[in-house]
Amino acid sequence: MEPLHSSDPAHIAGYRILGRLGAGGMGVVLLGRSQGGALVAIKLIRAEYADDAAFRARFRREVSIARQVRNRWAVPVVDADTEAAAPWLATEFVPGPALSDAVGAGTPFPEHSVRALGALLAEALEAVHAAGMVHRDVKPGNVLLALDGPRLIDFGIARALDDTVLTATGTVVGSPGFLSPEQAQGRRIGPPSDIFSLGCVLAYAATGRRPFGSGPVDAMLFRTVYDPPDLDGIPQALLPVVQACVSKDAESRPTAAQIRTQWTRWTQDTAGRGWLPAPVTHLIAARSTQMLSLPDIESTQFAAPRDDADTRPVQPGAPAPGRRRFLTYLAAGGAVVAAGGATAAWLTGVGDDGQTGSDGDRSTGSDGNGDRAKTRPVLGIGLQADLSGAQSARGKAQQQGAQLAVEAHNARSDAPFSLKLTMVDDRGDEARALTAARRFTDDTSVVAVLGATSTQTAGAVLSAYDEAALSVISVTDGDTRHINRVFQCARPNDAMQMVAVSSYLGIHDLDDIALVDNETEYSRQVTRFLSEGLRTGGDRTVLAETLPLDSDDHEARARQMVAKRPGAVVHGGDWQDAARFARALAKTGYRGPKFATQAAHDPRFLREAGAAGDDWLIVSTAVDPSAVRSAGAFGKAFRARFDTAPPLFAAEAYDAVRLIIACVEGLDRKSVSRQDLVPVLRTTTFTGVSKPYAFNKENGWYTGDQGVFLYRVENGQFRFLGTDPAKA
User: Fold this and answer.
1) Cα–Cα distance between 280 and 97 in angstroms, integer?
2) Region Disordered: start and end of each range (predicted)?
3) 727 is an annotated ligand-binding site residue
4) Which residues of the chain are modeled with pLDDT < 70?
5) Do 161 and 220 share a structural domain?
6) Which H, E and C letters describe 252-279, residue by residue?
């Protein structure tokens, strides 16, 4: 890292700038620290490029593309402002060197390191290609090295598979020496082009040489198209895969998934810290130590919420509370974009007819106040949820909670406006989710949306809502990669669930913690952040266990894990995999603490695990309304309306609608635009029936301190324990 120049800013948005990481023709890369303490790399674009409308459009696209790729080995964009005078984007900071620096310093990688590098980069490219993208610039300089694996960066020239931009004949895009023959000839490219580049990167890592030599660009391009690659020195065991990757025939190259599958026998090894050559490991450790010596951001205090449940007054929001250093790792993914321009949506004076729409759309707005209601302006709220798919139980819970809030509001004689709730069933399908989002973005009466139910559907629609400046509030999705300027996460993100687990382990002084990762993105997020937090802040031993979803040896692996005498076990998978593991673990006789996460807080876990699920501690962001006094009136009203106890996430959906009401009433205007609501939602503190709500004004993440709850499984039921790990 270099010192700041006199022309460099001291702050960008909510980030304190600490130094320079690099510079190029289009801008500078700065090291920044967020208000929560997380380090980020900020790419700041030079103002002269920002004045170019075409460039700014491309930069918006870069940000949009980067947000669609969600994989632990692809560095996520955590914040951006594409509309600033000098636009910028921030990514998660990786304190390791680029592969080009490590190998260029005279350190070719041994066989096991190249194999690990190839498998993990293939997995990152698999996510890129699954998102409909081609990276286009896979090279050693775009691969950062961390102790737990590599990170693929810089989607600056990535394009959608069906995009014709920059693919015209005669146009070369990429880095000579690592680009594919089709890139060198300016032909249209697809995922096989990235695979060719990956093969070149692996050859470079294994030998320290570019497989098509160096020198003038024209010469390198000629050799790439016509000459065989120089693969001398590549270990024999790796040669078949590398040769296949750098085939001139794009159709004969393996897919990213095939490479990942072929080279994942070392996976359990790389879940620890031994995949890199010792000199590189030492370099990363030295850089990490340097980062710890950087100045801290002063911590701030979150004002305690009011005791009453009246949520209508709107209060200025407060930044996130300070955390101990090791817990800052758990929040590394939570940041987002600043405000930008969009089409306004306004309250209208049209009465609500309550009619049912097509394709699963339903509207409700009856308030029982007769003609008087027809004179009120009408506020449109959308609900996008899975009402008939795999997660329909949660979707219907949100539907019922939102309906109850709408009906309660419309029955108020002093309500300054009526609510119209329009519900669209996306069935948990990404294509239908995007159609649902367009339904709401095109309806100018809708000023906010509640949804979506699943992580996949939420990720599919955020760009559409962002373009329309339409605020979306999620009470079920906490993926740390889901970030943009309109997203409000009304629950702690997935990684922050682990704060409760960390506290429990500290209170009970437990060490040798077994973290079970089933190789899903969700599981990796929660186990990775907990692992880094425990190792960095608590100096605890972490026993990393990788147990893939398709594994058929749960019992054998559970016995191997128990033989290491873990002080506690934390499973990061979904309800089905957690239940399967619980049955296997029960057969070993293990009696220590056992944790599962939000994904296992599902009645299906209870049924599948059976007696083996008893005594498991479940970390959840959903409250049990029957167990907290603040939700007493809500529970009574819910039973009267739906003739059943409120299910999980019904209270949170009820609160989300009331939060929107509070924000609109706080503006105290005759008309409210979508743009008006975006910043207000982030500067509002709110006492709901489930918990107090507050959001980080920069990124929209939940910052309240009562959003994670513990449950214990007893006799096939989830028993609510509350928020205090000491009582678990």
Assistant:
1) 8
2) 303-322, 350-376
3) no
4) 1, 24-25, 36, 105, 155-174, 265-273, 286-374, 480-483, 536-539, 698
5) yes
6) HCCCHHHHHHHCCCCHHHHCCCCCCCHH
pLDDT for 265 equals 57
Q: Same domain, yes or no, for 370 and 487?
A: yes
Determine which helix (DSSP H) or strand (DSSP E) holds 711, and give its type and residue range.
strand 709-714
* DSSP of 97-123: -BHHHHHHTT-PPPHHHHHHHHHHHHH
| Residue 698 token pair | 């920069």
Rounded to 5 degrees, φ, ψ at 724 are -95, 110
Task: Determine which helix (DSSP H) or strand (DSSP E) holds 11, and give its type and residue range.
Answer: strand 11-12
Which is nearest to 165 in space by CA: 181, 188, 144, 190? 188
Tokens standing for residue 329: 């790792």
**Distinct helix (H) and strand (E) counts, the chain:** 23, 25
Percent of the chain as helix, strand, coil, to the nearest 5: 40, 15, 45
Return the closest-CA partner of residue 717 out of 645, 626, 561, 611. 611
CA–CA dist 120, 247 (Å, integer): 21
- Cα distances from 180 to residues 220, 222, 359, 378, 501, in angstroms, run 11, 11, 45, 56, 47
Distances (CA, A) of 632 to 204, 210, 624, 627, 642: 64, 68, 11, 8, 15
Interatomic CA distance for residues 308 and 5, integer angstroms = 51
Q: What is the tally of structural domains in the chain?
A: 4
d(CA 576, CA 350): 47
Active site residues: 137
- Confidence at residue 290, expressed as pLDDT on a 0 to 100 scale: 62
Domain that holds residue 449: 362-492+624-697
Give the span between the Cα atoms of 651 and 707, in whole angstroms: 13
Structure tokens at 42: 């900020």
CA angle 263, 266, 268 (to 5 degrees): 135
At 569 the pLDDT is: 96
Distance CA 155, CA 153 (A): 6
Distance CA 300, CA 14 (A): 13
Query: How far, in Å, CA of 31 to CA of 22, rounded?
Result: 9
User: Are residues 594 and 663 located together in one domain of the fold?
Assistant: no
DSSP 324-386: -GGGGGGGTT---PPP--------B-PPP---B-STT-EEE---S-THHHHTS-EEEEEEEE-
Q: Tell me, what's the pLDDT at 361?
A: 57
Cis peptide before 122 (omega within 30 of 0): no
Looking at residue 627, what DSSP letter applies?
Answer: G
At position 274, the amino acid (one-letter code) is G
CATH number at residue 47: 3.30.200.20
Please say whether the beta carbons of 385 and 426 come within 8 A: yes
Q: Token match 């309550």: residue?
A: 354
Please tell me the distance from the alpha carbon of residue 629 to that of residue 299, in angstroms, as a whole number. 31
Q: What is the dihedral of CA 608, 613, 614, 618, to 10 degrees?
A: -120
- The encoded tokens of residue 51 equal 């004045």
Strand partners, 449: 382, 472
608, two tokens = 């599948």
Give me the pLDDT at residue 288, please: 66
Burial per residue of 79-112, b for 16 or more beta-carbon CB atoms within 10 angstroms, e otherwise: bbbbbbebbbbbbbbbbbbbbbbbbeeebbbeeb
Name the β-bridge partners of 466: none
Nearest to 696 by CA among 706, 685, 707, 710: 685
With respect to residue 328, please indicate whether it lies within any of the assigned structural domains: no
Domain-terminating residue out of 48, 78, 93:
93
Phi, psi for 135 (deg, rounded to 5):
-65, -50
In this predicted model, what pLDDT tens digit does every residue of 378-416 receive, in sequence order?
889 999 999 999 999 999 999 999 999 999 999 998 999
Phi-psi map region of 716: left, alpha, beta (phi>0 left; psi -120 to 50 alpha): left
| Tokens describing residue 5 | 């120049």
Residue 130 sits in the same domain as residue 61 = no
